[in-house]
Structure formats: C-alpha cells, structure tokens
Amino acid sequence: MNMMTQFNHNQQSMTSLDISELVQSRHDKVKQSIERLAERGVITLPPMGEKATAGRPTTFYVFSGEQGKRDSIIVVAQLCPEFTAALVDRWAELENQKPAELSRMDLIKLALAAEEENIALKQYVAVLEPKAEALETIADTTNTYCLRECAKTIGIKESELIKLLIDKKWIYRDADRKLQPHAQYVLNKVFTNRTSPVITNQNDGRERVFLHMRVTAFGLTRITGLVNKVRKAQQVAA
What we know:
Layout: E1 13-15, H1 16-23, H2 27-39, E2 48-51, E3 58-64, H3 65-79, H4 84-96, H5 104-139, E4 144-145, H6 147-154, H7 158-167, E5 171-173, E6 179-181, H8 183-187, E7 191-195, E8 199-200, E9 207-208, E10 211-216, H9 217-237
Antiparallel strand pairs: 1-3, 2-3, 4-10, 5-6, 7-10, 8-9
C-alpha cells in the first residue's frame, strides 16, 4: 500500500486510490460507488485530492477522521464485503503510526509553497478590485433617475420605455395614472419611491404626500439589459 496520502501530520487519511488497490477494483468504479452512497445520504461525500501524473492529474476522494473512517468502511462493505476486515486492520495500522517529523528541507518547501500561494492570491485580488469597485457603483442606490433620464441614457424613446416596462410588469399606472413600480422590483432595488414634500390642498386644507418613482443606478443597468434583450429578439425575428 504505497498510495496512502497523509494530508496533515496530526491526522491519517485514506484515499479512494487506496481502497481501489485494497479491493482490487478499478478506481473509477470505487469513485462511482462513493458518489452513489453520498447521493443516497448513506455517507458524506469526502473532499477531493489531486496528484500529478504523466497525463491528466488524477483526482481521488480523501477519507479522514472518524467520519472518514466510518464512511470508507461502508464503501468497502458495499463494494467487496470480504475486504472489510482488511480495511479495518489498515486503519488500525495508520492510527498506531507516529506522526512523521518534517525535515529542514520539508519546512523550506512548505514555506516556499505558502509564499507562492500568497503572491498568487495578491495578484488575483489586484485583478478583482477594479471589478468590485464597479459593482459597488452599480449597486449604489443613492443616485436615482427618472424614466426620462433613463430613456435618454439607453437611447430609447421615453414612451417606448414606459410601454415596455408596463408590458413586462415592472411598473403600472395607479388610479391617478401615476407610474408606480411593482413591489418585487422595489425589493430588488431596481426602483425606489421617494416622498415629496408635504403639500397642503388650498381648497380643503388637507396635507398630502406623493410618492415619486425613481430608478436606482442598479436598476438602470437592469433596464438597459432588458431593452438590449428585446432589441436582439426583434432583430432575430426580423
């Protein structure tokens, strides 16, 4: 058994490759059995490992800890019950092994690998930061627009934009013929309602407040996407 993988020095592990060798079965069949048992909820799907080979890297499942020990025994019992005892003995051997001590060269290699990962992570973050800033701008709801401003920005007539949004049930006209957003698009932060200053009716003296529908910056991107989608559909139909 020379395929035993020890992923950390305080905990022994057994891989699906080890099980394949133990029960003398093809590795792909062992993996399929593991996946079927996991789908049925009999075991917990273990994490994947990978090792370099001459061709494509070989991936395998890694069983570790008490849960992994239990699940690996169930897998073997399902595949080849006669090898269950051998697997239990193998786990006993592993648990009795003393943790291997790292040499100075091993420590250097681990330090170098950690530094390489750190550099790669910094480079990845550097690429993502501008995208994150752009998303924050899009998601900003402090800047809002009226439909006329949106139509001008998108390059569509205001009347056409209003008709489209009504047809798609993003907005509707209330009893006073004022445009109002459907609730789900307010919750999704596409639209927001801003209250007007208190207005006093000169005839009856009653004070009233009106809601004015506004489009958020995020909503503008959603509406632009909707308009572009409709335009493409019309071009295809033509």
